[in-house]
Amino acid sequence: MKSSKLIMGCLATLGLSAGMAVAQDDAAHDAIAERLKPVGELCLQGEDCGTAMAAASGDSGASSGGAIDGAGIYNNVCMACHETGAAGAPVRGDEAAWSERTGKGFETLVSHAINGFNAMPAKGGNPSLSDAEVEAAVAHLVEPVMDVPAQESGGDTASASAEGEASAGAEAATAGIDGEAIYNSVCMACHDTGAAGAPMKGDAEAWAARLEKGTETLYDHAINGFNAMPAKGGNPSLSDAEVQAAVDHLIGSVQ
Q: Are the CB atoms for 109 and 70 separated by under 8 Å?
């Protein structure tokens, strides 16, 4: 009888020890998994992981005071690529990687972030962001490598003024250039036929949403390429002013 009790006691002790070991193993595995958890997700064109990331964080990108928290938006949506260089994204603070990009101006960088560029999806994959929120995130991203324009309230008026000045500058640059001839030799193959999804010349409905983005954005897309359209319509010998003149001719039919 004593022997049976001794055996049962030993078995109980062994069972308790095994249970503690399993619990310790589970805790260790959980701790390792937590340390290995990715800091973010990679978002490529056509994916919607940016929205999921922002929703999971519960951060709308604005502080309780109403000011837009560009750093918070960047940390939720942009840092997965711009802190690691994933998909060829320039890393924040890398002056060499940003030098050519910053030379195009802050407005162009904001346009790329809002509308998408190369592997970067529009608004970083988070379509719920406003243009102002994207602009604030871009300001935080490029602040270490360029002088960022002041982010003021009433930005619509400032934006309209800036676009008016840019438009006047573009008109001066394209003076004397035959935009129609350039269009006919380079652009009409797609924009007169709708090939590759190109909006056709004179199709007001197809151009409505595009025109709302502003002429500067259309210039930028034509010069740098956008979706299936190659940079400068596939003719790199064209100057920026010549491309702008061709764009002016193209959209003149729907303005």
A: no
Other C-beta atoms closer than 10 Å to the C-beta of 95 total: 11
Residue among 122, 123, 119 nearest 136 (CA) = 123
Distance CA 111, CA 125 (A): 14
CA atoms within 13 A of residue 68's CA, in its CB half-sphere: 20
For the CA atoms of 138, 143, 147, 150, the dihedral, rounded to the nearest 10 degrees, stands at 60
Q: How far apart are CA 203 and CA 198, in angstroms?
A: 11
Question: Would the pLDDT of 197 be above 90?
Answer: no
Cβ atoms of 251 and 211 within 8 Å: the answer is yes
Among 42, 228, 61, smallest CA distance to 124 is for 42
Tokens 């002056």 correspond to 95
What is the number of alpha carbons within 13 Å of residue 229 lying toward its C-beta? 24
Return d(Cα 149, Cα 33) in angstroms, integer.
Answer: 42
80-138 per-position pLDDT tens digit: 899 988 888 999 999 999 989 988 899 999 999 999 988 889 998 888 999 999 999 99
Q: pLDDT at residue 32 above 90?
A: no
Is the pTM for the entire model greater than 0.85? no
Determine contact, residues 216/222, Cβ cutoff 8 Å: no
Tokens describing residue 146: 């360029």
148-162, 190-204, 223-237 — which is least confidently predicted?
Answer: 148-162
Q: Left, alpha or beta for 91 (phi > 0: left; psi -120 to 50: alpha)?
A: beta
Question: What does the longest C-alpha to C-alpha distance in the chain come to?
Answer: 112
Look at residues 181, 180, 228, 185 and name the one whose alpha carbon lies nearest to residue 45: 228
